[in-house]
Amino acid sequence: MIPKQKPRVGIFNLSSCEGCIVQILNLGEKLLDLLKLFNIVDCRVLGVKEDYNKLDIAIIEGCVMSFEEEVKAREIRERSEIVIALGDCAVSGNINFMKDITNKPHKSKPLSEVIKVDHEIPGCPISSEEFYRVLIDILMGKKITKKSITVCSECVLRENNCLLEKGVPCLGPITRGDCNAICPSNNRPCFGCRGLADDANIDALIKAFRDRNIPISQYLIALNQMKHKGGEER
Ligand code: SF4
Ligand code: SF4
Ligand code: SF4
User: Fold this and answer.
1) How does pLDDT run across 32-65, given as a tens digit for each residue?
2) Could you tell me the strand order of the sheet in which 48-49 lies?
3) Of 41, 89, 90, 199, which shows the fewest CB atoms inside 10 Å?
């Protein structure tokens, strides 16, 4: 059921390139629809800053890379009913995490390491359509679920020629799909921007890389170690 009052929404960013927020702006007509349903009261990129304390929905882009950002994230959490992590930087730490994955302690943290996150919108950048869908589902009180298919399954359905078979390091077999395998469909390997699939078999992918003489990146090795340790070191 749609609430009588428009939910108050704040859109914030921590360490990010703002590419996911740009995807929101790319919604065009659909953004105008969202503006009829939601009251955006705080968004630097849109030039909106109203004096509201409580928010119904906070949308946070970017990972946490400093004490100041940690404080900012906690402060937003405190005054928001629902927090959405927007994009791979917020969901997993993304490129910043990849950069310092071999350093300990890690400097970059996904949002969920610092505050409770209610919903995650993966992708680098996010899909505008998925963002729209998630906001409408929240408004309608629907449960938001993540599909458990891999990029590979979607790639096979699209009858693409497999890049991995040609010796290209594609992470599609271990990556959560629902992006219509957009990268391999455009002859680019999947770099895993939607995060690990539920049943990701990283050992098998490492073996597949070895069998094809594809160099194993530090990132893949660290990902595997984390998976085996249940992420306890992060
Ligand atoms: S997820 Fe990608 S596009 Fe989004 S803010 Fe991070 S680097 Fe930019
Ligand atoms: S190109 Fe990548 S995503 Fe597509 S089938 Fe091969 S490994 Fe899977
Ligand atoms: S194919 Fe991989 S890298 Fe490309 S959008 Fe999908 S999950 Fe992200």
Assistant:
1) 999 999 999 999 988 999 887 899 999 999 999 9
2) 48-49, 39-43, 8-13, 55-61, 80-86, 119-121
3) 199
